[in-house]
Amino acid sequence: MKRYVLMSVLLVSMFACPAVLSQEFEPEDMEIEMEMRERAMEMEQNERKMDMEREMHELEMEQRRLELERAHNDDDDDDGEGALGFLFLLCAVVHILVAVWVYMDIRQLNRGSGIWIVIALLTGLLGALVYAVVRLGNGRQKGA
Description:
By secondary structure, this protein is mostly helical. The protein folds into two domains: 2-77; 80-143. 88% of the residues lie in helices and 0% in strands. The chain has five helices and no strands. Helix 3 packs antiparallel against helix 4 and helix 4 packs antiparallel against helix 5 (125-143).
């Protein structure tokens, strides 16, 4: 009896191992594995396609940004720098003329130590206006 049990175990083990191992390579499993590989390849291809589209979109955005920057830089030519330069030059000339007038007036009247010249130079038109008001006040006092 032991022999029969041993023989049956041996026979079962001989036929069971190849049967279990052969299940791994059955056609159905191979088809499933192929489908999984195809899906993985499709997903990888889709990822590459999406990466390429993202890069193209980034390039388009960069190109648009550069075009806008160029257009903005082209518009900067009409920002009025020439007008500001002319205005600055005009103010400088008026400032110098006012300082010369204050200097000449003080020397003509022989008054003071020339502090009004410094005030007129440092404060510009406001200092010259104050000097003119003071001078008018002094002129009225002398005339009265």
